[in-house]
User: Fold Aminotransferase class III-fold pyridoxal phosphate-dependent enzyme from Paracoccus litorisediminis.
Amino acid sequence: MAMYDNHRPTAELQALDAAHHLHPFTDGDALNRKGARIITRAKGVWLTDSDGHQILDGMAGLWCVNVGYGREELARVASEQMLQLPFYNTFFQTSHPPAIALAAKLAQLAPGDLDHVFFNGSGSDGNDTNIRMVRRYWQALGQPERSVIISRWNGYHGSTMGAASLGGMKGMHEQGGLPIPGIAHIDQPDWWSEGGEMSPEEFGLARARLLADKIEEIGPSKVAAFIAEPIQGAGGVIIPPETYWPEIQRICDAYGILLIADEVITGFGRTGNWFGSQTLGIRPDIMTTAKGLTSGYVPMGASIVSRKVAEVINGSDEFAHGYTYSGHPVAAAVALENLRILEEEHIITRVREVTGPYLKAAWEQLTEHPLVGEARITGMMGSIALTPHKASRAKFAAKAGTVGLICRERCFANNLVMRHVGDRMIISPPLVITEEEISLLMTRARLALDQTLDIVRAEGLL
Ligand code: PMP
Assistant:
């Protein structure tokens, strides 16, 4: 049926891949010398590669396969929708039932007065939508000079020009003249790396107050919005100190700037509630969502917007923005079915009450390992900091990421996908992971850490 061969020998697939495929966020030559790992199928939390290995996916793909792999309902719904109405747009005064139903469903699930939806194709273009929407909002209110958006160093908001500018990944900014004008960054609330002598609580407050300082520096009448991930994901699963978000919320309210919560990872159950904003007690004006919206089965994103903002956008002339695939009917139908599964199978409640606490207890014990400094986790997103000396929260003398990469390779060798960000190891498994699978994940993680310690000692990296 498919126009490709799932059973071709690995070496052949790798050679073809090397010859024609440019990979995202990849050193192409290095990959091509080694050959890509080729994933051919998946079920539940398990990936199968072209050599027949069964690999436990501790990252839910790219933090997205919330309901797990291989759900037939999603395939069925996609196929039925393709036959019914494979495409129609939502421009030019038209709409269609899947997009209508999904917007209404998201309005029902989202907290507070977040009850309007602008559909995007992904998280990145969702954040581009948000940049344009908040600027349009202030323009429509007669304050066009309110255009600056403040975000954070080491935040991640996507890879388009706008979203990568919002992000605070310096390596991305260096390629291609970013950030675009009108974006300012403040430091992140990463206590482990940057907290110095302060307590986490003091540090959380200090880092939140940088927002007020930045607003004053730019001029309060020029600032449109602040954007942040409730918990930084790609930055290393940085769970902020408890003092951080209440102070950020207070500052946004005091200055009357819009708050955008980038929930691309934290949305749809990852933190044990529908949205990370609920877990962290945030009241955003806009939430960026994608990934878990469809569990990654098809691409889709949604900016979920407060009534206050939506009324201004609707109440002014045409908002000159949109994507061909805004509200794509197949994606919308899959999203609705995915939300039904999350809801009816009580998957998020289970994360909050059963599997999340089970994983947390095991994860936090990792600090007993000689290499692990801190172990943090909320719901199904967690990280550990690798360190040569816990008490001083020291960094390795080797280039950042050297030890993290060794550990990631040891995870792969033990058929576990964990990712590394510098010398932090991160997990974000499918939300349907069972207790048995969590135990297996922990066994493999500990084994990988032991092997990493042996290598680090042998190579004199400690
Ligand atoms: N925001 C956050 C918080 C993300 O983690 C990501 C992707 N990892 C994005 C935005 C960008 O989403 P996409 O890759 O779908 O464009």
